[in-house]
Amino acid sequence: MGTPTTTPAVTPQTPHFPEQVTGMYILAEALKRLEIPTVYGLVGIPVTEAAYAMQKVGIKFVGFRFEQQAGMAAATHGYLTKTPGVLLTVSSLGFMNGLTATANATVNCYPMIQISGASDPTMVDMKMGTYEELDQLNTARPLVKAAFRCSHAKDIPSAVARAYRAAVSGRPGGVYIDMTTPALAEIMNREDAEKLFYQPVDLYSPVSPNADAVQRAAETLLSAKRPAILLGKGAAYAQVDDKIKKLIETYNIPYLPMSMAKGLMPDNGPLSALSCRSTIMKEADVVMVIGARLNWMLSFGKGKWNPAIKFIQLDVEPQEIDVNVPIAAPVVGDMGQSLDAILAAMDGKKMQADPAWVTSLQAETKAKNVKFSERLTAAAPLSPMNHWSALSAIKPIIEANPDVILVNEGANTLDDTRDAIDMSLPRHRVDCATWAIMGMGMGSAIGAAVSTGKQVVAVEGDSAFGFSGMDFATICRFKLPVTVVVLNNGGIYNNIGVNPSTDPRVESDPAPTTLDLQARYDKMGEVFGVANYYVTTPDELSKALTEAIASKKPAIIDVQLAADAGKESGHIGYLNPTPLIDYTV
Predict the structure, then answer these.
(1) Gyration radius from the chain CA atoms
(2) Among positive and negative, which fits the CA dihedral 240, 320, 258, 462?
(3) What is the pLDDT of residues 408-419, one digit of tens each?
(4) Cα–Cα nearest to 266, from 252, 250, 255
(5) What are the tens digits of pLDDT across the range 516-529?
(6) Same domain, yes or no: 36 and 183
(7) Rounded CA gap, 267 and 262, in Å?
């Protein structure tokens, strides 16, 4: 009889369940792998968990009180870093609020990506009345550089990479991603999701300028008798400061910066023609326009300009050439490569400029600066203060702290601050730019502080501050080194508005331009537990601003101005049409 066999014991096997992830994780991971450090936004259905996923993978999420301000922060981040600032919003009106900033980024050539949660498009297309039903993709398309829709989780990595490329390539701008609820909620096996990620190559590919165009530009500039260089914010964005400096200083060419190009070369440098704008327009025979548009801010390149002027224009966008006026020497291509090529073409050659041109501009600058200084000095003792009184205190402090980024908006506050404060470092002034859009202040201050780590001073008109003031709370919550200075004259332009109505139903209402002269904006500091100051004299303002900057913490300063301080639309009041009806009758 044989030995009985025994059946070996069977060890139970644990079933294998692949780890699963959602579209929200895939979105967060896609952003992280493109080295996006920060996302600005405001959460709610359907993106709340996406924001948590971003934090989990190590992305800083800066939560705002209003989507528009989060978008302004993202746009400023893009301008200062040359990488896309990212905005996350909810659907419908949250999307629309953010789109204001994304459209503004597109017009101003700031790289930015707006990602908005969206309802299922199959339901939106059939107008079934789903939650926050809006065709966001087609709403955004006319206002942005590019737009994509993610209907499935597998679309997300590609959409994010393509949006990045679109935002930074060529002329930068805003890009929209419609992040649908089905895509965010979709569940995938992690190993399948991992296969979706890839590292895009050459996200920004510089385009070289045409050699003949470079030679033409060099010859045109060398032949000038009264040359000038006009610097725009595109030149500041390009971060080719050393090349611009070399061109200007090697060939002794006067320069005129637009507002956000202030500091690209020092405003008070020996070749600065900042005080000679009218003379440059009237007398220069060759002007090289670097990263600027010949738009309304420059009289469209005609009218006030020398009729015989020749423009050289450096731009990355071919369609910008010959807008408003013919360009004698266009150079289309990457700004750095264009300047390198022009410098090489000019190397060893001499300008034909009249030596008296620079000396006459320097003499004009000196005389105008004396008058301007006298204006500030004369305004300082006024009580109550006007804008110039306040700026007599602000100017020396900002100029003594050149690494502070200045954010500026308003009407008179914008114009007068731009004229008064000299900048000495590039990309240290951010304002409302091409669209002159009010309400960018708090968002831009936050974007500047977060993206650079630098201190920020926001000089705000009281009307402009009203658009974005609640996001002072965001500055406080994130403990950012931002000082907000509100110049309060109690109105839009000023507080002296008169209601012309004799109708008893409305005659007691405030005039359209009248706000709150006695408003205590400094009390917002008490609400959010940070330093706050109420000042009525330049000395008080100087002390408060010095303390606030030194603290490197959030602070707010309410600067009380006179009710009649300021005038309509600052330097552009002519844009308000003269009424055809005498409303006072």
Answers:
(1) 28
(2) negative
(3) 999 999 999 999
(4) 255
(5) 999 999 999 999 99
(6) yes
(7) 6
pLDDT confidence of residue 567:
86
Which residues, listed in sequence order, are joined to residue 514 by a DSSP beta bridge?
491
Strand 187-189 vs strand 20-22: parallel, antiparallel, or unpaired? antiparallel
Strand partners, 128: none
Domain hosting residue 387, numbered range: 380-575
Reported as a pLDDT band with limits 50, 70 and 90, residue 14 is low
With DSSP H G I counted as helix, E B as strand and the rest as coil, what are the percentages for the chain, rounded to 5?
Answer: 45, 15, 40
| Judgement on whether residues 119 and 40 belong to the same structural domain of the protein | yes
Sign of CA dihedral 266, 268, 272, 273: positive
**Is there a contact between 72 and 474 (Cβ–Cβ < 8 Å)?**
no
> Tokens standing for 349?
């050659």
CA 75 vs CA 78, 79, 113, 430, 543: distances in Å: 5, 6, 9, 11, 32
Encode 494-524: b = buried (16+ Cβ within 10 Å), e = exposed: bbbbeeeeeeeeeeeeeeebbbebebebbeb
Per-residue pLDDT, 296: 87
Per the domain annotation, does 12 fall within a domain?
no
Q: Is the pLDDT of residue 577 over 80?
A: no
71 phi and psi angles, rounded to 5 deg: -65, -40
Total domains, the chain = 3
Taken in order 207, 212, 214, 217, is the CA torsion positive or negative?
negative
Cα separation values, 46 from 117, 157, 187, 573, Å: 6, 19, 15, 44
Which residues pair with residue 570 across a beta bridge?
Answer: none
Verify that 285 and 354 share a domain, yes or no: yes
Do the beta carbons of residue 399 and residue 262 sit within 8 Å? Answer: no
Distance, in Å, from the CA atom of 533 to the CA atom of 147, rounded to the nearest integer, reads: 45
User: The whole model's pTM is what?
Assistant: 0.93
Residue 207's contacts (CB-CB under 8 Å, 6 or more residues apart) are: 170, 316, 332, 333, 334, 337
Query: Residue 4: what pLDDT?
Result: 54
List the strands of the sheet with 227-231, edge to edge: 255-257, 227-231, 286-290, 310-315, 329-332
Q: What is the mean pLDDT of the segment spanning 449-465?
A: 97
Distance between CA atoms of 193 and 25, rounded to whole angstroms?
10
CATH number for position 323: 3.40.50.1220
DSSP string for residues in 455-474 = -EEEEEEHHHHHHHGGGHHH
Residues 352, 392: one domain?
no
For residue 581, the model assigns a pLDDT of 47
Query: Quick check: 580 pLDDT over 70?
Result: no
Distance (Å, rounded) from C-alpha 342 to C-alpha 220?
11
Q: What does the DSSP assignment read for 248-314?
A: HHHHT--EEE-GGGTTSS-TTSTTB-GGGHHHHHHH-SEEEEES---SGGGGGGSSSS-TT-EEEEE
Report the alpha-carbon distance of residue 135 to residue 121 in Å, rounded.
7
All residues at 6 or more sequence positions from 7 whose CB lies less than 8 Å from its CB, including other chains = none
Q: 154: domain CATH number? A: 3.40.50.970
